[in-house]
Amino acid sequence: MRWDVDRFEKSLHRCNGCASIVGPASRPYLSPAKNAVSRLARSLIVCAACFLFVNANSAHGETLSAKDRAFFENKIRPALVQHCYECHSAGAESIGGNLLLDSSDGILQGGQTGPALVAKKPGESLIIQALRYHGVEMPPDDPLNETIVNDFVSWVQRGGQFPKSIEPNGPAGIASVAKESPLDREAFWSFLRRRDVPTPMIDDTNWPRDPLDQFVLARIEGAKFTPARDADPATLIRRLYVDLVGLQPTAEETEDFVADFQIDQPKTVERLVDQLLASSQFGERWGRHWLDVARYAESNGDDGLGRNASFPHAWRYRDYVIDAINRDVPYDRFITEQIAGDLLPAESAEQRNRQLVATGFLAIGAKPAAAMNKLFPMDVVDDQINTVCTAVMGVSVACARCHDHKHDPIPTADYYALAGIFASTETLYGLAGNEKLTAPPTALHELKSTWDESQRHQPTSASTDFPPNYSDTIDQLRPLVHAKLDKAPGDLKVAGDVSYTAANYAKVKNADLRGALNNAEDSYSVAFWFKNNTDNLARPITAYLFSRAKLGDKQLPGDHLGIGGAHDKSRSGKLFVFNGNQAKTSIVGTTVIASGTWNHVVMIRSKNRVRVFLNGQLKPEIDHEIAATFGDSTEFCFANRSDKFAPLDGNLAEFAIFERGLTDDESQRLHLASGQPRGAAPATVVLAMGTRDKAKPADCKIHINGGAKKGAAVPRGFLTAYRRLSDEKDPSKFVAANYSVNADESGRRELAAWLTHRDHPQTSRVMVNRIWQHLFGQGIVATPDDFGLYGARPSHPELLDHLANRFAEHWSIKQMIRAIVLSRTYQLDCQTSQRILDADPANRLLARHNRRRLDAESLRDSMLQASGQIDLNPGQGSAVEKVVSLINWPAGEATTLHRDSNHRSIYLCMLRHAPPPELAAFDFPDAVSIAGQRNATTLPTQSLFLLNSPFLVAQSSALANSLPKAPLNANADSVPGENVSDAERVTMIFRRALRRSPTTDEQQAALRHIQAIEEKLSPTVDDAHQRQNLAWASFCQALLSCNEFRYID
Amino acid sequence: MLQSASCGFGFLAMQALSGQRAAAQNAVAARAKRVIFLCMSGGPAQLDTFDYKPQVGKKPHAGSVVDFKRHGQSGMWVSDLMPETAKHADRLCVINGMHADTGNHAQSFLQLHTGEKLRKRPSMGSWINYGLGSENENLPGFISLNAAKHSVYSSEFLPSSFAGTPIGVNGENMSLATIRNIASDHLPPSAKREQLDFIQSMNRNHLAQRAGDAKLEGVIEMMELAFRMQSTAPELLDLSNETAQTLQRYRVGKKLSVGTCRPTDFGRQCLLARRFAEAGVRFIEVNHGSWDQHKDHRRDLKANCETTDAPIAALLEDLAARGLLDDTLVVWGGEFGRPGLTPGDGKNETGHNARGFTFWMAGGGVKSGYVHGRTDETGARAVEGKVHFRDLHATILNLVGLQHDQLTFHHEGRDHRLTGPEEARVVQEILA
């Protein structure tokens, strides 16, 4: 493979795909009719509702006709941006020929060679001559193709005008949005402050239960309809279970609920809702909704080179989300922790850890291979900007990376104001599979069990003031070589600068001491005292202490014990063991060893297991499988590595080497006999993905066209559209609030504060809409991730603001859900009159409830529940928590990392492009981008899953076997207590799977089915018991596969 | 109407359905119903296969380093390393003026498949299925054999019903590769039918109380489709009813591993492609690689040609014999080409060349025995009849009856198309 990065660079960031795609030039956007067609195609599949098309042609108060403007936007501007602005725009580093091509003024004024354009006279226009390579040749490296040149000719013929909105700032300017234009304000509705809407007047005042019902009913009454009847209690309890916890009620729970409901409806429903909201299953259901938004996954996904590195620590973020939802962490706090958790104060280690893990939100995105793109860091920033803005505000700002956003009021400058915040942030995602060409490896957050940092770095107070019998104690363990090192050792070969004293033993610098064992067995131990004088960040590796390796071999086969340095800051000052360039295993300890202190180390190899004890601690610093790679070599050296790289500058004492693996106890004795205090216990460090501020936060320069070439720096900040769109009378403090970013910080704290300001127009609207969507199957805004110009408009704008205002009072997700599910609107039946069905097929009036399919997780969990196999304890960790590798490599190795599990689906291993097979068929999101709304396709692969998947077969069999066995023939009563008739068993299975007893017809049909299957099996299956089991399992599978099981009313 | 809830209807049918007659009439006449894409990954050396560059003048220059001969009525030059394919010279439409944006494998490979170099976009097979809908009720419309990675068969933002179904991912053994959950042995087929009948009776009762719910109706239909697929797909994958002679013609099971040439069981892929084409799958991609012959060009080139030559010839022969070549478009090519070697200078390694390379097409609506465009005398860059990937995409869409600038999908606030925002051109010159 050879990487042609430079050439690629030029083409990559032209933002292919950002430009609106248009057919005939006369239509700047798709015509409403055409739009409706493509929408219809989708709506039949994803049941997306059609929404109003807004013609934005006249959105800008400019002199250009819509036609001319469209021509410019679609033909001329992309070409200018792509081919000319690198040199000829205000944002360019040095302006070529003093010519600016980013405004009418610039082009008419011209550059060194005079005016570049003569309106309506292409032949006389320099720009056309240059594009045709007549005299002047532009662009210099490659002539534009003829079509583009002809476009420029037409443009000049039409007058060569620029639309006003991008004057005079070009690609890096501020898109001015005409405040006075009423259509703009309609188009950018979500940027405008929320209104305090009084609840509307209604006729049927007995109907509503919650103020929100009044908004809904007003619309229904306005359309001269009446709402559907209330759902019956059996339907309602199932709806509440699935919506709130993603599980099914049992038949008994259903029957109890139905009975109580008849007596006291409101109290019965409230009691159930409160019970479900308080259960820990609630967080597993609603946490998963947030994970869709957070594009959560445990591997990187295809990075463009087909590589897919594991994210072994991502699952901690999953657990954080479940926990936060269960504790009902206020949404503003929830967002703040995910964006800036590392910058927030904490009162305990537990809180600190939780906040660090929360920032995993910013780190778990899919990244391109480093080899794909020189601007890799900006790709990470791009993912973060896009995720934060889309998740929280429902606004996509990605286009503004390369040019002012075409249809939302986001100028490029805003993008780079945000980019400065994330570019000042270090993203910690880990080793990226520890493979070449992937994303470059980074450190990770270290989660600590103690919060008081001052206790952690206490140097040991050890000295070499050993008792007189210390050397004898060492000898009692029969070392092969024991060198006290208060004078030159007899058994070792010394090279380099070494001096010996009784008080400080061997002082070494650029030296090594060598020896050999008698045999090359893969069990040995080594123990000694050392003092390192090199600062832990002074060089890439602070020091190598010991090598058991063939001396001088450049491939470094063998064991090498060293102290980490600046090369990897997460390892600085910590002991590590490395086994050479071939095997490449390197395991690091946790304790930071302060330079200038005496420390005792014992390294024990017992076959493939290596343990390293520091300062007499009972818990090893390192305890890991590490392949022995020294082969048949018996050599060793200390104070240096076998190839003389990174020698120790310091002191050594009481060196001993043993031709066997010492026991833990023996290791303790080697330290205990020294009379020195035991060192601090190694901290339990666990790792997490996340972010932290860079040492030197800085504003980001505009990247011209999103490429490598840079323009002016933009002060760190946020989106400016709100201020520009606000009217003078706006009393909101949000617009006026001043959020200047502290120069010493990235600005994520301020960003979070800005986003979660009570008056931020979008944040609360977007979240209540997400909540509404999960409860009704469609949002008030049908495009939950797009509140921009091209997104849908709210079906009930007043209702949206009413809910958003309520939500922003306390930011409680649970309270919002509670209010909605207790409303009359939520509790309506799915069935309604044909008149309403015909008039409102998409149910935009909310005069009935929407029938929905169980999603991938609820389907699997419900099946496990029915079969009795479900384990409702939280799943621990992840199948990949110890896997640092590419999950699909080498070629031909399909992913086999998924483990069988009966835990709820949220705990399954979510690998990008290798999703759990039990979930993959049912529109499980790919986690490459935000998925605020899942598809609900109907595909043959889903049916195949139901008919054939090992999961279904196993659950069906488990369900069949979980019930008392029927006797083989009617008169057999040999098994006491199991005298259950087949009809009774059918009823039991019905109640387990469908939470109700069968009708007589259903019972008869089931028995006929079981009988028929047994008959079909008789030619091939001899054993009667087995036939019976298979037939009953077939019946169970049928119930788990049918629509009644998979759809909720 | 049942089909509309599933994967049956494409964009064109939708336009007609929703009364957009004018738009539907804009559609071009379809010359092909399906596409077989012979994807040659790694950058096949065009100068030693189909773009003959003999030495001209006295000074040695870069060009072809293997011998070429003229073939067929058309007298088309084809490399001696492709003796079997050469017999079909009069069926080929060679495009020698291909060019692409980048000589970087991953990006160019992605652009070839999706029109985009880095961002994830739907693959052309998905676009075509989105545009045309399914031709066979019992099979997916897009099958990717020996797929290298997810991004080349993904439907991305298009509905997932248009995603490619991979058979054999990431180099797995093609003789074992299959469709997930296509079969199980927990019940014999007759019992499965019995079981499905029971499920469907439950479903119909459920539906009866919820009359008019198209989604529930769609599920009932889809259960039947899946049931039929269970027999159709494994039958198609099972080559035991092919004659020994056919297996030999396709070189099924031949696995040559030389240098960059991987053992891809290319013959099995081509034979499966024919069977899927016969069954009405819209878009079938087969894969062989790698043509990335950096180190030992001559040796690896020979192995790659030897692996692919006979199977491709057998495929063309069978398609023609069965009358399928008239409405099946076969497309051959990779993410870019390679610069030529200079005879006699002792060098045997080649790099990448995206400025000029070769694709060929055959069948469905393209000229036969025809060469379009040319590169300069050393094959370094396309100089005449230049065709960019987006032009190639526009042309393929045109051949199957779709207009590239009309086939759009709205996503993330804008309308996307396979050919991207830039102008693409249908290569009218090669249309029959």
TrEMBL record, chain A:
Q: Signal sequence: where?
A: none
Coiled-coil spans in chain: none
Q: Which InterPro entries match?
A: ConA-like_dom_sf (IPR013320), Cyt_c_Planctomycete-type (IPR011429), DUF1549 (IPR011444), DUF1553 (IPR022655)
**Taking every annotated instance into account, which residue ranges of this chain make up the domain DUF1553?**
747-1009
**Domain DUF1549 residue range list:** 211-426
Residue ranges annotated for the Cytochrome C Planctomycete-type domain, each copy included: 84-142
Start and end residues of each stretch annotated as Disordered: 450-470
Mark out the compositionally biased spans (Polar residues).
Answer: 457-470
Task: Report what the protein is called.
Answer: Planctomycete cytochrome C
TrEMBL record, chain B:
What organism does this protein naturally occur in? Stieleria marina
Q: Which Pfam families match?
A: DUF1501
Cross-referenced PANTHER family, in alphabetical order?
BLL7424 PROTEIN, DUF1501 DOMAIN-CONTAINING PROTEIN
Please report the name of this protein according to its UniProt entry: Sulfatase
Cross-referenced InterPro entries:
Alkaline_phosphatase_core_sf, DUF1501
